[in-house]
Amino acid sequence: MDREPYPTGPDVLEHGAGRDDRPGRPWLRWLALALAAVVALVLVVRAERRDPGPPAAERSTAAPSTAATSASAVGPVGSGPAVTELGHPLFGGTAGWELFGRGPDAVVRIEPAPGRVSVTAVPGLASGGPVSFLAGPGRVVIRPLDRVPGYAVPDGRPAQALTGALAEEGPLIPGPEPGTGWLTREHRYELVGLDGQARNVALDQPTLDGGGFVEPDGAGYPLFTGTGGSYSVRPDGIRRLTSGAVLAVGRTRALARECDERYRCATVVVDRRTGARRPLPGRLPSALQVGGSVSPDGNRAALLVEQPPLRPMVHLIDLNTGADRPLDARIESASFDESQYAWSPDGRFLFLLDADGELHATETNSGRSGKVDLGLPRLTQLAVRSR
Known about the structure:
Layout: H1 27-50, H2 66-72, E1 82-85, E2 97-102, E3 106-111, E4 116-121, E5 131-136, E6 139-144, E7 151-154, E8 160-161, E9 172-174, E10 180-185, E11 188-193, E12 198-204, E13 214-216, E14 222-226, E15 229-234, E16 237-242, E17 245-249, E18 253-259, E19 265-271, E20 277-279, E21 288-294, E22 300-307, E23 310-318, E24 324-330, E25 341-343, E26 349-353, E27 359-363, E28 369-371, E29 381-386
Parallel strand pairs: 17-21
Antiparallel strand pairs: 1-4, 2-3, 2-29, 3-4, 5-6, 6-7, 7-8, 9-10, 10-11, 11-12, 13-14, 14-15, 15-16, 17-18, 18-19, 19-20, 21-22, 22-23, 23-24, 25-26, 26-27, 27-28
C-alpha cells in the first residue's frame, strides 16, 4: 500500500438658624444652598455611573433564565474566516462537495475543487460532553448535548450563537434531507432545520432497554438497539435492521453479524432497500468493534479494530470481495464515533482523524493514504456537505 502525505460617608446638611446666618451676612446662606445643590448633583451623577441600567426597550420585570439567554443570543461572536487560496485543487479536483472539521476553538472548511481552506474562530464549549457536528446548506452547526451554548458557522461569516430549537439540550442526529436533523424530545424525535426552525415532523420514540442511546442509521433516521436486534425509526414505523449486531451502516447497505437458533454465525451484507442478505467473503479481523460506517456507494466499510497495546486502527473492507486493508491512522479510543470519519459523497475518499487530531485521507480505489498537509489546527470532528 502506497502511503504518502497529502500536501496538500454621606454629606450632612443642617437647616435652621446658625451662627453664620446672622443678619448682615446673607451671602453665607446663599453659598450653603449652592453647595447643597452641587453635592446633590454629584451624588446623582455617581449613582448613574454605578448603575446606568438597560435601555428602556430592554427592561424587563423578570430576569431571563440561562436557557432563554442562550436561545436569544444572536449576532456574530467572533471574526470572519481566514481564507487561504492554495492555487491548485485538492483530492483529484473532485467537485460537488466540501469537507468540514471542528477543533476546540475553530471550524475548518476545505473546498477541494478551487483549492481553498477557510478557518473560522469559534468560542470554546462550556461542556466536555458529546457534541453534534452537522453540515448543511450554507452553514455548519456545533451543538453540545448539555444545556450550554452552541454555535452555527455560516459560510464566509463569523460564528453565531444557536437560536430556536437548536439552543435547547439533547442529541441531534442527521435528518433525511440536507440541512435537517432529529432532536430527541420526551417520547418523540422532532425534525428541525439547521436554521433552528421546526419542520413539524415527529416520530414516536420507543422505550429503550436499559436507557440505551440513539445513533444515526446512515440514511437520515434514528437507530437504536433493543430486544431482538437493532431497529431504525421511520415515518411508517419501526423497522428491524438486523437481529444481530450492526458492525457498520450506511444509506444503501449495512454490515451485520447474525446467528441462527443454533448459534451458527456469519457476517452478512444487508441491502437496506430490499432487506436481502448475502455472506461477506473471507474473514473479518478479530477484536472488531461495532460502530463502523459504510460508504455512500455501498462498496466499502470502515471498521475499527483494537490491537492492544497499540491504539485501535481503522480497516477498510471491500463489501464485494471481502478484501481487508488496514490504514495507518491510530485512533484515539476504541469508540469509533461517527464524527471521527467522513466519506466523500462518491465514496472515493475516506477521511479520518488520528489520535493527535490530524486529518488523514485515503483514496479507496488505489489505497493511497496519508496525512493531509495543509497546516490545519487540531481537529476532533468531521462532516461532509454535498453541493
